[in-house]
Amino acid sequence: QVQLVESGGGLVQAGGSLRLSCAASGFIFSSAAMGWYRQAPGKQREFVALINSGGSTVYAASVKGRFTISRDNAKNTAYLQMNSLKPEDTAVYYCNVGSPPAGDWGQGTQVTVSS
After folding, report:
1. Residue 1: what pLDDT?
2. Does residue 109 have a pLDDT over 90?
3. C-alpha count within 13 angstroms, C-beta hemisphere, residue 10
4. DSSP assignment, residue 41?
5. CB burial class (10 A; 0-12, 13-18, 19+) of residue 15?
6. Which residues contact 42 (CB under 8 A, 6 or more apart)?
7. Are 37 and 95 in contact (CB under 8 A)?
8. From CA 108, how far away is CA 40, in angstroms rounded?
9. What is the per-residue pLDDT across 46-103, written as a single tens digit (0 to 9) for each?
10. CA-based nearest residue to 79, from 66, 87, 88, 70
């Protein structure tokens, strides 16, 4: 059974940084692409970033150059380093397997960026 647990969110001022973590279990993590997604209030969930099993990455245009996705296969954990945060980055952030996402959604982690 796939389990994904996000953590690391919080309240930060514009221009600040946060590092999100996604602890995964129930599947062969090292073989899976992992994605980060976000959902802002009143908006649909959207793609943020993806890292494949080989370490190649893809980013949404809105976060490219500011966010970095990475993974630690020994820890079955994916990360999202978020720098130069903007108020429009405020959302609940989720991780999932692949893009399009293949698993059930976890509880997410709230990121709030104040101006």
Report:
1. 87
2. yes
3. 10
4. T
5. exposed
6. none
7. yes
8. 12
9. 999 999 999 999 999 999 999 999 999 999 999 999 999 999 999 999 999 988 888 8
10. 70
Residue 48 · residue 40 · CB < 8 Å: no
In one-letter notation, the amino acid at residue 33 is: A
- Tell me the one-letter amino acid at 76: N
Q: Give strand pairing partners of 95.
A: 36
Is the confidence at residue 25, as pLDDT, over 90? yes
- The number of CA neighbours under 13 Å toward the Cβ of 73 is 11
